[in-house]
Amino acid sequence: xxxxxxxxxxxxxxxxxxxxxxxxxxxxxxxxxxxxxxxxxxxxxxxxxxxxxxxxxxxxxxxxxxxxxxxxxxxxxxxxxxxxxxxxxxxxxxxxxxxxxxxxxxxxxxxxxxxxxxxxxxxxxxxxxxxxxxxxxxxxxxxxxxxxxxxxxxxxxxxxxxxxxxxxxxxxxxxxxxxxxxxxxxxxxxxxxxxxxxxxxxxxxxxxxxxxxxxxxxxxxxxxxxxxxxxxxxxxxxxxxxxxxxxxxxxxxxxxxxxxxxxxxxxxxxxxxxxxxxxxxxxxxxxxxxxxxxxxxxxxxxxxxxxxxxxxxxxxxxxxxxxxxxxxxxxxxxxxxxxxxxxxxxxxxxxxxxxxxxxxxxxxxxxxxxxx
Length: 372
Description:
The protein is an alpha/beta fold. The protein has helices at 18-21, 25-30, 89-97, 116-123, 138-143, 159-163, 180-184, 187-194, 197-223, 253-260, 280-287, 305-311, 319-322, 336-339, 344-355, and strands at 47-52, 55-60, 73-77, 84-86, 104-107, 128-129, 131-132, 135-136, 148-151, 169-171, 234-237, 239-240, 245-248, 264-265, 275-278, 292-297, 326-330, 368-370.
């Protein structure tokens, strides 16, 4: 396994790919017995775990500060469960990373799904499609005999009807965590529910180690400079949508990724923990001179600067556009929605490669790539 070394005297030029950074699951699983079977939560604000005489008490809440009316949930685990329904790609990604796809007996959609195992299971009927939000097939849901159904706080439609099935619902709030490692740590919830706690601890420890190692190397990259007042590259996010310029909030997960990757987010003073829409001119005034520009979207084919210019001609006057430093994630061609929450170290590496290519000279980005 190739690791990202932190060396104050010599820069590591090891050939590092996304696949190399993320150790093969089989290797991690083989070493899982070396890890504790007790789950401890270090980063996730929406999870709390207590071991009590009557079972494992898991407290689930929405970590989004603005979610004032979100109800906290508690489940008591007394034995492992083996049948689950997922309603988002993100939830699937947790099972996929743990190699537990066979425990998913139902999905609500094939959209944004890349995992070959789950696609094959849906093809052969081992995993069934339960319908779409707002129009779930309750008879099919009941027939799948799930122990739990995962739902999302950002999705509205049909979940109340699912409650009538008498099957426990679990809100998966991982995507609401603003700490990248906090998002990934929700994988431990899957470990608890399935009884694969050692495996979950092994996988998360690997994610945590790689993220912190690269974060540290970025920081040391500047500490080693003779000029301690060196300016970090600036970055703007998002682009014009229907009602304005959509950006990631200054307190969001992506803003933290920017910071850890060694960039200065020009909207860092924004207080939103998720995404938000602002007036085009207000964002443009601050972002026109930004060195880098992060955005994403679903596009059939290779998204280029020409495509971006066709959306709004004003983009062509931005420094990041003129200097070809637009970093784009094509959601239609990468499993970003599915796996990025449990691969924050890879998302971080993608941006380090863009902002500071000298740190990872041979790294090939997985999600976010500079477009031409």
